[in-house]
């Protein structure tokens, strides 16, 4: 055997214990809007998802689309405002969120996976009353000795309940669920929910083996910009308190912490700009980001 074919065979063999470990299990993958900007990377993501399904693993994709929502808002002359990584969502912005997440982005991902040979089904949290939400009430203190004030984020929601029966039904078959983070209130109100939060709750409800959040950084970085490979829940509190973790990274770590408190073994924030990041993280000895552990 040539050394090249020996190398190829050993790479394939490296995947075997991981395929055995994850076969029949659910892996929740959050595909961030910032990780989905490059067409070649989108294709490598879609092929990874199809490969996982093909070897008996059940990927469930929750997608974001923050930059894509921001672009359409800009085209209609609206500025985006964020508080703690969450978009302030008035009624008009909520319509744009539904158009972009439920329409454009969701169907783009479905199409990419199907082009790669998979069978993806796109849903929002409204389908089958899957994601029930209520208005998020955000309380904040300007300073330690000040009374807290309530910040109105409009249609931003928090998840109160997930009925994952439709996801179960799809994953038991050949289908790959692709879910947009839009929730519905008991009274029919639409809610915009941060996709990281939805991914964390979905991982809890599905009792997922892994929760992977794909984004546009190498993982969680320290003050010097160096990758932190593993983080405990106590480390996270310290890094938030000293301002190292901010903005879009806050909901990711909140959801990782919640998922772990609810029994998940780990949650990983990985670099979606690395081609085949999912395969590298799941099926090889090589990690590609930050793993949050209990
Ligand atoms: N300590 C940190 N390490 C890495 N990224 C951080 C950190 N603190 C804040 N961030 C920001 O979080 C962003 C990722 O969140 P976000 O923009 O919401 O991505 P996504 O669209 O993938 O959800 C990074 O691009 C970075 O600007
Ligand atoms: C409440 C809130 O902020 N919702 C997000 C939903 C999309 C999202 O989470 O997209 P990324 O994962 O690409 O950031 C938003 O409106 O941008």
From TrEMBL:
<comment type="pathway">
    <text>Amino-acid biosynthesis; L-arginine biosynthesis; N(2)-acetyl-L-ornithine from L-glutamate: step 2/4.</text>
</comment>
<feature type="site" description="Transition state stabilizer">
    <location>
        <position position="252"/>
    </location>
</feature>
<feature type="domain" description="Aspartate/glutamate/uridylate kinase">
    <location>
        <begin position="25"/>
        <end position="270"/>
    </location>
</feature>
<keyword id="KW-0963">Cytoplasm</keyword>
<feature type="site" description="Transition state stabilizer">
    <location>
        <position position="30"/>
    </location>
</feature>
<dbReference type="InterPro" id="IPR001057">
    <property type="entry name" value="Glu/AcGlu_kinase"/>
</dbReference>
<keyword id="KW-0055">Arginine biosynthesis</keyword>
<comment type="function">
    <text>Catalyzes the ATP-dependent phosphorylation of N-acetyl-L-glutamate.</text>
</comment>
<feature type="binding site">
    <location>
        <position position="87"/>
    </location>
    <ligand>
        <name>substrate</name>
    </ligand>
</feature>
<protein>
    <recommendedName>
        <fullName>Acetylglutamate kinase</fullName>
        <ecNumber>2.7.2.8</ecNumber>
    </recommendedName>
</protein>
<feature type="binding site">
    <location>
        <position position="192"/>
    </location>
    <ligand>
        <name>substrate</name>
    </ligand>
</feature>
<dbReference type="GO" id="GO:0003991">
    <property type="term" value="F:acetylglutamate kinase activity"/>
</dbReference>
<dbReference type="InterPro" id="IPR004662">
    <property type="entry name" value="AcgluKinase_fam"/>
</dbReference>
<keyword id="KW-0547">Nucleotide-binding</keyword>
<dbReference type="Pfam" id="PF00696">
    <property type="entry name" value="AA_kinase"/>
</dbReference>
<dbReference type="InterPro" id="IPR037528">
    <property type="entry name" value="ArgB"/>
</dbReference>
<keyword id="KW-0067">ATP-binding</keyword>
<dbReference type="InterPro" id="IPR041727">
    <property type="entry name" value="NAGK-C"/>
</dbReference>
<keyword id="KW-0808">Transferase</keyword>
<dbReference type="InterPro" id="IPR001048">
    <property type="entry name" value="Asp/Glu/Uridylate_kinase"/>
</dbReference>
<feature type="binding site">
    <location>
        <begin position="65"/>
        <end position="66"/>
    </location>
    <ligand>
        <name>substrate</name>
    </ligand>
</feature>
<dbReference type="InterPro" id="IPR036393">
    <property type="entry name" value="AceGlu_kinase-like_sf"/>
</dbReference>
<comment type="similarity">
    <text>Belongs to the acetylglutamate kinase family. ArgB subfamily.</text>
</comment>
<keyword id="KW-0418">Kinase</keyword>
<keyword id="KW-0028">Amino-acid biosynthesis</keyword>
